[in-house]
Write a structure and sequence with these properties.
By secondary structure, the protein is α/β, with parallel strands linked by helices. 29% of the residues lie in helices and 12% in strands. It contains 6 helices and 7 strands; from the N terminus they run βαβααβαβαβββα. The two termini are 21 Å apart.
C-alpha cells in the first residue's frame, strides 16, 4: 500500500521438512501467521493480502523455542526457512526459496490464497488493522490528499497507506508468482 513496506520469500511444507498440504485452504481472516526473522519482506506482502502476519523481528524473537511458544500461544501457523524448526513445529510451513516471488509461488502451491484485497485490512509496517482516512482529514506530506486518493491509516503506528507504486509492485509480484 503506498510506497511503504517490503516483501519476503516463502515455501511450503507440513512441518516435517517436506512439501505437503499443510497450507491447504489457508486464507486471510481465518488463518493467523507468524513469520521467522528470515521472512520480513514476505510478511509485508502477506499483510497486504489481508493476512494477520506477525513478524518475529518486530517482536525481537529469534530463538526457535520462543518462536514455537509464541505461535502456539497466539494460535498462529509458523512460516520459516529453518528446516529443523519446521520439522519440530506442528503445522509449520517450510519455505526453501530466498526470492519473494518464488516464496509466494511456494505458498500458492501449499494452498494459500494470495491476492490484494480491494480494501486493505492490515498495516504493512506493523500488522495493525487499518482504517479508512476520511476525505476531509489531513495526511502526512508523503501521502496524497484523501479527498483525491483513497487512503488508510494504521491507528497502531500512524502509517498512512494508499494504492500507489508499492501496491502496483506487490500486485506484479503476485502475478509473477502464478
Amino acid at each position: 500500500m503506498g510506497d511503504e513496506g517490503g516483501s519476503d520469500d516463502d515455501n511450503a511444507g507440513d512441518g516435517d521438512g517436506t512439501d505437503g498440504d499443510a497450507g491447504a485452504g489457508i486464507c486471510p481472516g481465518a488463518d493467523r501467521l507468524l513469520l521467522d526473522v528470515m521472512l520480513g519482506k514476505l510478511a509485508v506482502y502477506l499483510r497486504m493480502c489481508g493476512y494477520d502476519a506477525a513478524y518475529a523481528g518486530d517482536r525481537g524473537v529469534e530463538a526457535d523455542d520462543r518462536l514455537r511458544e509464541l505461535a502456539a500461544a497466539e494460535g498462529r501457523r509458523l512460516l520459516t526457512r529453518d528446516e529443523a524448526l519446521a520439522a519440530r513445529t506442528d503445522g509449520a510451513v517450510l519455505l526453501t526459496e530466498r526470492d519473494v516471488v518464488d516464496q509466494l509461488a511456494e505458498l500458492r502451491e501449499a494452498g494459500f490464497e494470495l491476492a490484494l484485497e480491494a480494501t486493505p485490512a492490515r498495516c504493512g509496517r506493523c500488522n495493525g488493522a487499518v482504517e479508512a482516512v476520511p476525505p476531509d482529514a489531513s495526511t502526512p506530506d508523503y501521502a496524497p490528499p484523501p479527498a483525491e486518493t483513497d487512503c488508510w491509516r494504521c491507528p497502531d503506528c500512524g502509517q498512512v497507506f494508499w494504492k500507489g507504486s508499492h501496491w502496483d509492485r506487490v500486485a506484479a509480484a503476485l502475478e509473477r508468482s502464478r
